[in-house]
């Protein structure tokens, strides 16, 4: 039997912790596969500037978001736009009647092979 790679599990847990805040998910959703200024993020999320800036710092520090200065403005974009696709997959899982199904009833494990290390 394969053992769980503890380092991978911890990294994934940190990622989910960052993504567990609904305001961060709003910001990520507005960013999508584009780049946005703070003003655009404020308009897109409906959050106040202080909250947007606070969460952008967390997303930047985690390495999820890159910045680029263009004149007086700083633009933000996802480092890996595939994150939007991943969130879309989670959204489908949550809202397609899957949330009440028991994972122990024979559904295949959604874990990627890299999640496990050989014993």
From TrEMBL:
The keyword Lipid metabolism does not apply. It comes from the Bacteria. It holds the Pfam family HTH_5. Keywords: DNA-binding, Transcription, Transcription regulation. Residues 4-98 form the HTH arsR-type domain. CDD domains: HTH_ARSR. GO terms for molecular function: DNA binding; DNA-binding transcription factor activity. This is HTH arsR-type domain-containing protein. The lineage of its organism: Bacteria, Bacillati, Bacillota, Clostridia, Eubacteriales.
């Amino acid at each position: 039997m394969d053992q769980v790679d503890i380092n991978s599990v911890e990294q994934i847990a940190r990622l989910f912790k960052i993504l567990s805040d609904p305001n961060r998910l709003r910001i990520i959703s507005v960013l999508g596969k584009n780049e946005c200024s703070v003003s655009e993020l404020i308009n897109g999320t409906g959050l106040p500037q202080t909250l947007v800036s606070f969460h952008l710092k967390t997303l930047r520090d985690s390495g999820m978001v890159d910045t680029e200065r263009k004149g007086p403005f700083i633009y933000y974009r996802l480092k890996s736009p595939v994150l939007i696709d991943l969130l879309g997959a989670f959204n489908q899982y949550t809202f397609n009647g899957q949330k009440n199904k028991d994972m122990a009833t024979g559904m295949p494990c959604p874990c990627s092979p890299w999640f496990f290390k050989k014993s």
